[in-house]
């Protein structure tokens, strides 16, 4: 609530993960390219504030981790010395409020996360990213094709 009183909001988000598998497909019937994206491995979300930096949220079997950082977000992409290096697998420049993040966290409060279940730890950051970006980070997406080209951009 303190951030809201200071007028802090968010100007974008990046979904971090170990990787992303993408499978492209062409549908001759509709003359349309699509890709099916699947986020792979450990995930986290980095949210850019209009104030002084980044907010990083991450959930693992060890628990919930959050960190606020100024400067570059890149130091947030590695889980400890020698740990897994996460990379940006999706991003958004959609603006949203602290209250939006709080609401999305409240929605997830009752969820029980465990690897090997429908609600794996990685789904925490993916669901939060989907909520703040108002787009899906996984699933089938239509690919735009450059005019005069038969291949996706």
Question: What are the salient characteristics of this protein?
Answer:
153 residues; alpha+beta; seven-stranded antiparallel beta sheet; 3 helices; 7 strands; globular
Structure description:
The model has no long low-confidence stretch (mean pLDDT 89). Helix 2 runs antiparallel to helix 3. This protein is globular. 18% of the residues lie in helices and 42% in strands. The longest helix has 12 residues. By secondary structure, it is an alpha+beta fold.
Could you provide a short overview of the structure?
With 153 residues, this protein is of the alpha+beta class. It contains 3 helices and 7 strands.
Largest sheet: 7 strands, antiparallel
Distance between the termini: 42 Å
Q: Give the count of helical stretches.
A: 3
Structural class: alpha+beta
Give the total of beta strands.
Answer: 7
Task: Classify the helix fraction into a percent range.
Answer: 10-25%
Percent of residues in β-strands: 35-45%
Mean pLDDT: 89
Detail the poorly predicted runs: none
Radius of gyration based on Cα positions: 17 Å
Secondary-structure element order, N to C: HEEEEEEHHE
Shape: globular
SSE arrangement:
Layout: H1 2-5, E1 9-27, E2 32-49, E3 54-60, E4 63-69, E5 87-92, E6 96-97, H2 98-108, H3 122-133, E7 139-143
Antiparallel strand pairs: 1-2, 1-5, 1-6, 2-3, 2-7, 3-4
Helix pairs in contact: 2-3
